[in-house]
Each structure stands twice: as C-alpha cells, then as structure tokens.
Amino acid sequence: MLAGAFALSCRLLCAQQYTGPGAVEVACRGLSEPDGLAFHPVSGELYVTEAGAGRVSVVRNGSAVPVVERGWTISPDFPRWAIKKSTPESFWLNPTLNRPVSLAFDAHAHLYVLEGVPQGRLLEFIPNEQGAYTKAAVHPIAWLTKNFTWDTVRIASNGNLFVCGNVEDAQHLHFGSVLMRDGKGDWWVVDYGPFINFCGIDLSSNGGILLIGDKKYGGFSWWDVEFHVALGEIQSTLKPDTYADAIAVLPDGAFALGVKPNESGRCRVMRVDPFSEASDLLVDGLEDIGGLCVPPDDDVFYVTDSKAGLLLRCVIPPEMISAQYLIEQTKVAREVREGYTPRETPGFLRDFLLTSGVFPTKAEEETEETEKDQKASRIDWKEMTFSLKEFARNVPLIAGKVEFTPRDENVVDPIKVIEFVMFFPGDVIVKGAEATPSMTLFCSTRQSGKTEKTRRLFSGYALSRAGDTSEEAWSKESERAALSVPISTVNMKKAPTGKTVDLVFLGLGMYDDYYLNLITGAENSGSLIVEDMDGQQEIYDAKFVRIDETGRVFRNLIIAGFDPPEESDVNAIGWLNIGYSPVGSALSTGDRLKKFSSTQESVNTMIEAKTEEKKREMEQLLQKEETL
C-alpha cells in the first residue's frame, strides 16, 4: 500500500490536544510553516512545502529532509512575453523559493511548486538520474495580468494541470480564478469573478472531477473535467465567524474542509457529504491549517498545522466511510438525470452479447466454408470495438448486469445475477406487414448454475392473404418477425436525482416472471420479485454498481440513445480557452492602427486614449468648418 511505503512509524507520537472520532498522530515535528502536501508517485513518500523556510522537504522516519532548498537552477528558456517591468527576467530566474504553499507531482515524478505571494511563480522541478531536484523550469500563467496570489496546484494523470488563486490587494473586493492547462499547453478559465475567494482545489481519485472550495462560506462546486460542465454545488457549510482554508477529496469521495475561526480559537477539519450536505467532525484542536492530503489506498488523511509546525496523520472511523465513491456518483447522477449515453461501452455488455449466441465468434466462422471475398469480410466480435454513442443513436437500448441478495435466507437456489439487453425498449418493430416486440436478450442465473435464457417461440410468421382470396392466414414468409420469451416491458420515471426504471420479464407460463425495479443516479439500488408458475414469490435486493480500489465506478446499467438536445443542457456553458500566451490585439478608429498586448496596457486604457483622439479630430474638423 502507498501509505505503507510512507515510513512514519518510528516517530509517531500521540498529540493530546488534537481530538476527533478517529486516531490522530503527529507524523512529523519541527517544520517551518508547513503547508502543501503530495505523495511521490513512485516512492510513495510524502512531500511537504515549508513556507517559512522557503523549501520543500520529504518526510522520512518522522523527520523532514530538504529536497529543494539551495543549489538549484532555473532554465532561461521560458516565454519572453512574461518579462515586463514588474516581473523582469531576474524575477523569473531567481533560484530561491518565495513562500512555497502548494505542490503536486505529475506521472513522470516532476515536482510542481507554487509560490504563495502576489505574482508568485509556478515552478516545475525535473529529477535527475539520481532523483534529485536540482533544475527547474518556470511556467508563466498566460493572459491574466492581475497580481494573483496562487493557492493550490493539482495535476491529473493525463497531464492536465490546475491552479487556483485570488487577488487580495483590495480591502473589500476579492477576485478569484481557477485555471486549467491542458496537454497542448493551452490555459482554460474554469471559474472566476469578483467577490469570489477560493480556498483550494482538489481532484477525484481518477482525475475526472475537479473540486473547488469557497473561503468565505465553505461552499463547494465540482466540475466534469472532460466535458467542462458543473456537476454539483453546495453553497455554504460554515457557521458564523468561521471561514474555510483547505479542501480535499476523501478516500470515499466525500469532502474534507479545513475550518478556521475569524478570531481566536482552534481550527478543525470537517467531512462533508456531497449528497446530503451533512458535516461531521474529523479532527479538532489545530492552531492553524496549512494543507490537506489524502493517500489513494487508505482510510486516512494528512493535515499540516502551520503555526505548530506539525504534520498530522488522522484516521477516518469506519462508520464515516461511505460504501460508494460519492463524488463520482454525482457525475453518474447527472448523466442519468439528463439522459446522456455513457461515454464508454461497458465490458459487461460486450461479454453478454458474445455469450448470447447472437454474434458468431471467430472460431465458429472458421468452421464455415465461404468464398474468399466472404472470408475477407469476416468480423472477429471478440476484437470488436464500437462507439456506444454512435450505435445507440440509431438503436436505443437498455442493458444491465444486476446482482442479487435474497431477503429471505431460506430461499432454495437463489438467483445470483440477471443480464439483459433491450433494443428499442417499449417499441414494436414493424417490417412491412410483419411486427415483433422489441428485441430482448435475457439470462437469469441461479446459485446452482441453472439458467433461464431468451428463446424463440416461433419466427418468420406473418399474417397475410392466401392467394387472391380474402381469407387471412399465418404463413412462414420470412425470418424477420419473431416472438421470444420472456417478453419484456419497461417504464422509466425521471426524478431529481436520477431515474427509476421498472423492468418486467414475463415467462408466459414457460419461465418465471421477473419484476425488477432499479433506482439509478444518486442512490443506485433496486429490488427484484420473482414469481413462479404457482404464484410463489422470492424477493431480492439488487446491486448494479461496483467500485474498485482506485475509486473508479463500474456502473453495470446503461440507458443509451435517449440523449437530450445539447441546447437543453443549461449547465454546458463550457470553459474559456485563453491559449498559451497573451494574444496581441489591435484597435482602430480610422486610418491609424495601434497595436497593444494584454500584458502591456489594458483594453480600457486603449479605448480611453482612442476616444480622446477621436474627440480632438472632431474638434479640428469643426474649427475648419467655422473658418470656411
């Protein structure tokens, strides 16, 4: 385990002043204003910024060992547009950390450090062959000319880099900004505006969701990183006379919030549920809060007490840990609520189609003797790749792999799993004079291995006229019409947190009847009633969501092909792409053209200057007319 690689056991000391529902231990003492925290992706060691000493240290055996302090250099290869009067070249190349407050590692173990001062730098430290951080590159943040004090940096596994910060030089007006730099080097504005004061950002365990915290109210907002849409919001969690100063995503997908009093008093860390918005105490008694950090494979978190110079390891009690990865469930809930087709074709659907016998396997195809041109066109369905979104656009479907637990322990040979795919659910497929219910593939498997699978009662029969007479009779005209058991019906109801799906599979006296109710979205639960031909019933609890050790959610239920129009999605406002460097602009009020850069002059100044110039031209023109 990653936390196990973090060797702190030698000097873990109890801290009596810290209280909470779980164990709290001092993992390291003697730090100089410790703040940001991050785990090394290879060694698993915990790194910490020491703002008071201007260094980055690694915690080994309960002690802090400096890894970035002196003797490092900065590459002079950086964008020239960043050089201006307030930030000359010497500013960018100064090999001294000025109050480092946050750090993050990318997938290549490059260390990114933020300086927590106005116009502080974002530095990337590249390890040498021995893993030492002796050389850095500077990354100016494009377009923004305000004196931002950057607070937090985070990096996703795909290389997307996020920073947040605020302009705090005004007494009563804050201006906050959250930015993303993508893999191409372009910067995007995620969230920004006056009166906003961000307290930090964090990423979900798979990097697909960005969490943003508000300092004044302790509120949260979180975003889908891939599609740039808002997933949820909590406006306020704080009591009066307190403010927030750090956030993190906990191991179960809930939120951790560092809370400080406006005046004297102790600080605390709270757990906030993104669905219920309920909050619970995790640890109390801190003098100050620097940063929060969560290892990916343990039910603990780390927090720095900046004033006390301590690093704390805090255990989350089992009763506070959710069975689901909560922040990821908010993304699933939105997709279901809005009716969007899932982004990936689930593996359970592919496996079921292959075992259903509908599609031939490569081995089965090779037993047939066909012509050369037919052989060239064969499809290996095991290697088949297709876009679910493209497929469902033409053939809407509902598919699931649902596991069950009997409510009565005395059920003999209980049902373990049901797999099904419905094409054109709720519709009748018509081919000329022939009609058939929507196609359904179904398989119910009991503990003993006994199955009830879809089978055809008849196929290819249609009602037609016999010769030139007016008599009607069933005749086998084609293979297009069919009737199979069980027959399926479906009903879907939209709710604020997702959908309720009622599925019925009728056995027509040949199979049992199955009544399946699934609540999908925020809750992800369900039930099943199985009624046999004698009217006896079995009742089960249903489960169709699995979460692996990384927090990735496998949702074995898809509702595809019912996507709403894009314009109906009011949240899909997107993020603003501001490019890699400031964009040169030009403003003209006649035959004269004046160029300017956003790093040199503001647009307002240029407009005012051009307005005065235009006024002077008009006055001169009027004077000439008066002379004439």
Mean pLDDT: 79
Question: Considering DSSP H and I runs of 4 or more, what fraction of the residues is helical?
Answer: 10-25%
Unreliable runs, pLDDT <50, ≥5 residues?
1-16, 364-384, 461-466, 567-573, 584-604
Structural class computed from helices and strand pairing: mainly beta
Oligomer: single chain
Q: Into which percentage range does the β-strand content fall?
A: 35-45%
Counted beta strands? 47
Computed CA radius of gyration, to the nearest angstrom: 32 Å
Largest sheet: 10 strands, antiparallel
The backbone outline, from C-alpha atoms, is: globular
Tally the helices: 8
Task: Give the helix/strand layout.
Elements: H1 2-5, E1 13-14, E2 24-28, E3 34-39, E4 46-50, E5 55-60, E6 63-68, E7 73-74, H2 89-92, E8 100-105, E9 111-115, E10 122-127, E11 133-138, E12 149-155, E13 161-167, E14 175-181, E15 187-194, E16 198-203, E17 209-214, E18 220-224, E19 229-234, E20 242-249, E21 255-261, E22 267-272, E23 279-286, E24 292-293, E25 300-305, E26 310-315, H3 326-338, H4 347-355, H5 362-366, H6 372-376, H7 388-394, E27 397-406, E28 415-423, E29 428-431, E30 434-437, E31 440-446, E32 451-453, E33 455-459, E34 461-465, E35 472-476, E36 482-485, E37 487-495, E38 498-506, E39 513-521, E40 525-531, E41 537-543, E42 545-547, E43 553-555, E44 557-560, E45 576-579, E46 584-588, E47 593-597, H8 603-627
Parallel strand pairs: 7-11
Antiparallel strand pairs: 1-2, 2-26, 3-4, 4-5, 5-6, 8-9, 9-10, 10-11, 12-13, 13-14, 14-15, 15-45, 16-17, 17-18, 18-19, 20-21, 21-22, 22-23, 24-25, 25-26, 27-28, 27-41, 27-44, 28-31, 29-30, 31-32, 33-36, 34-35, 37-38, 38-39, 39-40, 40-41, 42-43, 46-47
